[in-house]
Fold:
Amino acid sequence: MTQTNFFQRNFLFIIWFCSFALPSVSSYAQSDYFLQWKLLGKTEINYAMLEENINDAGQLAAVDTAVLLEDKSSRLQALKQLRELKAPSAQFSLRVQNKGDYFRAWAKVRAPEPSDRFMTSGERQRQNILEANQGNDKLIVDFQSNGVHDFFFLSLAQKNLANLYFLLPQGRISLGDRWDMPQHLVTLLPNFVSEQSDHFSFAILEGTTLNTAGQRIAEITFLANSLVKGEQRALIRPNPEESIILREQVQAQLLGYGYFLIDEGYWSALKVLSISETSSGGRSYRLRSLEIE
Amino acid sequence: MITNRWLMAIGFVVAGLSTGCAHKANIVQLSWKVPAGKQLHYATYFSGELKSEDKRKIYRFENPEDIGKIGFELMQQPQLLDELLNRLEKIKPEETPIETRVFAHKGNFRALTEIVEKEYTSAVLNAYEADVRRINAKFVGNLKATTDFSQNGQLLSFYMSQKEKNGWVTFTYLPREPVSVGDSWDLPVFLTEVGEGFIPIDSDRVSRAKLENIWIDKEKGKIARISYVVSEKVQGKNVYYLAEKELTHNIGFTIVGFSDFLIDSGYLLQNVNYKLWMSAAEDGRKTEGAAFTIKTLTENIAK
Structure:
């Protein structure tokens, strides 16, 4: 059979094949990374886990994650400030175990070792609380290699933690790609009547690098923002002439980074700051982190 | 000359096309369409917490720990679901002074549930009921719950608790895609929530809404009946470190009910919801309960 004959006889098949194969090849070339939990060469990994309110967030107190989402240079500047933000000692231990066809994460309260150094009354109180709760479970969740779990009975706060620490993109990703990282940051009373509300919650593949051990690292940024403006109408109104309506604005933001070992399949480090504020004056900062032990 | 084989082929094509057309005619897109400036009013009928024997009359189960299994049974045995829906359709508890209003709002829809004035037609049965009526009269105009939702009933008020969301989902939620009778879709309802210190041993859930039937009412138009079933069962250990003890717990929830949705008008005619729950600990402590709620449109055409 001549070459001409071959193409003539298989013309339709070649067109059909190209229509599927070429886009697949090009999309593979664009999608460079596939992040999965593996714990390569390990049966388990242990992290020091921090989950605590802090008094001051420094320059990050004025952060606007909606701006950071669109402006990469501001985002990198904010992440630099987050890296420098001083963190208290971790008060949980998180163990992630490879169970074969799934992974189990188990976080427990762990009091820091008693120290001879002088402690403030606040530090002493914290130490006492942690010692009293030593060993208590904070979070238990089983998840697949892509970080998806089916523990439908977790509280919203626990689901937030499970999504933040374990959920990975569902498929191949390229530099700059972002994916949903669901976070429920604001819960209002049932009688809150919204005038304006907005919400986003993403993870972004910011870049990749090699660490000193030559391991490939995916640098991931976490950004979330929930804003609600409206009226809080009183649940109880004993006097019909006197309605209690409070105008309120509630905003919660989340900024963080995580370094994921691409080939080994686990976090080498993760740090996240949450900022919550209300128009009535309440403002709080919460810091979360994971560090390999 | 047309052979028999050609006639058969033409017959197949014609039959295939006509079947396809008939199938397409039964596909419906369910979406909310309340016109701007109009309001829909829904009255609420509520049973209060049902007595043990009453809930077993509605659906037979042997012991409270079976409550979380009801949805699994109903999915496996459709005739049991049909019978249960028929029984639910016949129950009409006492009307409450609670009204839900639905109206168009900023390109989507808003629902508000408030306490309203009510003239009772039935006599007061006991002192407790008299108290409830007196308290409700005092709080007329009080807002109990609110949500915004899209044309296909997806909740837009992301800041609600899961419990609040559950209460609205069965009222507003519709499938995103066009559906035919027999099609089903998931409901984002999550009934169980455990705290820290709970070590799960076993868990499972089912969650399904289904287009059961479409019929035409001379006055109201084309109506879609949507059934829904959600069951969750969770077994685990609560660990009390200070007391140095562990207790096994079983938790079960089921909600089952139906909605009748006016397809062309684009709003709900009625929503019927039967909810059961239980929790049993290894040391013998048990709680169980059930309640029945109906929300019914108080007029055929929005004001």
About this structure: The two ends of chain B are 66 Å apart (CA to CA). The first strand of chain B starts at residue 39 and ends at 49. The helical segments of chain B are 4-25, 52-58, 70-76, 78-90, 127-138, 162-172. Chain B touches chain A at residues 112, 138-146, 148, 156-162, 164, 190, 192-200, 203, 205, 232, 234, 239, 241-242, 251 (CB under 8 Å).
